[in-house]
Design a protein that fits this description.
Layout (H helix, E strand, L loop, with lengths): L1 H7 L4 E5 L5 H5 L10 H5 L5 H4 L1 E2 L5 E4 L9 H9 L3 H9 L5 E5 L6 H9 L2 E7 L2 H19 L5 E8 L6 H13 L14 H9 L14 H15 L16
Parallel strand pairs: 1-3, 1-4, 5-6
Antiparallel strand pairs: 2-3
Length: 248
C-alpha cells in the first residue's frame, strides 16, 4: 500500500519482497506460479529488468521473492549477506527508480538485519498491542548499534498499525508509544484495524484499487507517503511551498 501511494505521488518505486514466505507474491490477485524474482537475481540467473514486474501504475514495479524452498532459507540469508547482492540490486535500480522499498520478515533476524545494513532509512510498523511496543524498543537499539558500526541508516519513524480506537488497551499502547519516543521518530499517520484491509488482502490489491471509488481509508497511505517524502529526501517536480492561491 505504501509503495503504491508513493508511486501515485510521482515517484518511481521498486517494491522488493525479501520475506522468505513471499508475502507480497501470496497477496497478489493474479496467480503467478513459478515467477522468477529476487532469488534468481541474487544467483545471477536473471537481470533486474527481467524479473521486475510491471503493474497498472506505470511508476510501480514489484520484485517478488521467486522460488525458495523452506529448507533453503539459510542459504537465502547467506546470499543476502554477501557484499555484492543487495548493493548490486540497488546500483542496478538507481537509474530506473527513485526509491526501493524492501518488505522484510517480522523480527530482527538475519534477513532483516542484512536489509537494514544496506538501507538508508527504516520505517517500523508498530501494532497497537503490548508485545509489539516492546519490539519497538528493540528496533531502536538495532538502529543505534548499526550506526555505531558505521552504517548510514536513518530512522524514518514508527507508524502505529492495527489501532482500535474503541479498545482502551489498543489506544493505551498507542499513547505509550507517542509518549515514550521523541516526536521526530513518530509518524502522524495511523493505520486502523479495519475489515477493508482484509478485503483488499483477499482481493490481492492495494486498498486504493479495491474499487473504482477507493474506500476512504486508502487515504491513510497517501498521508503516510506525504509524511515520509521529506524524511526520505524525496521531492516532487513542481512542488510548491506555502499556500496556493484559490483565485486566479
Amino acid at each position: 500500500n505504501l509503495a503504491h501511494s508513493l508511486a501515485l505521488r510521482g515517484h518511481r518505486v521498486l517494491l522488493v519482497d525479501a520475506d522468505p514466505q513471499g508475502s507480497i507474491g501470496l497477496s497478489l490477485a493474479r496467480k503467478l506460479g513459478h515467477t522468477r524474482g529476487l532469488t534468481h537475481y541474487l544467483a545471477r540467473e536473471s537481470s533486474l529488468a527481467d524479473v521486475a514486474l510491471k503493474t497498472r501504475e506505470p511508476r510501480l514495479q514489484i520484485l517478488l521473492l521467486g522460488q525458495l524452498s523452506p529448507l533453503d532459507i539459510d542459504r537465502f540469508t547467506a546470499s543476502l549477506s554477501m557484499h555484492t547482492g543487495l548493493p548490486r540490486l540497488l546500483a542496478d535500480g538507481q537509474s530506473s527508480f527513485d526509491v526501493v522499498v524492501f518488505d522484510t520478515p517480522s523480527g530482527l533476524g538475519g534477513i532483516t538485519r542484512q536489509v537494514l545494513q544496506r538501507s538508508t532509512h527504516v520505517v517500523c510498523p508498530v501494532q497497537a498491542e503490548p508485545i509489539a511496543y516492546r519490539t519497538a524498543c528493540q528496533m531502536m537499539e538495532v538502529v543505534a548499534q548499526l550506526r555505531e558500526r558505521g552504517y548510514g541508516l536513518e530512522f524514518a519513524g514508527f507508524v502505529i498499525t492495527m489501532l482500535q480506537v474503541r479498545n482502551e488497551l489498543s489506544v493505551a499502547v498507542a499513547q505509550e508509544v507517542w509518549s515514550q519516543f521523541p516526536e521526530e521518530f513518530l509518524l502522524e499517520a495511523t493505520i486502523p484495524r479495519d475489515a477493508v484491509f482484509l478485503n483488499a488482502g483477499t482481493a490481492g490489491v492495494p486498498v486504493a484499487l479495491l474499487a473504482k471509488n477507493p474506500p476512504p481509508l486508502a487515504g491513510t497511505f497517501d498521508k503516510l507517503a506525504l509524511e515520509l517524502e521529506p524524511r526520505l529526501g524525496l521531492t516532487q517536480e513542481g512542488s510548491h511551498e506555502g499556500p496556493i492561491a484559490l483565485l486566479v
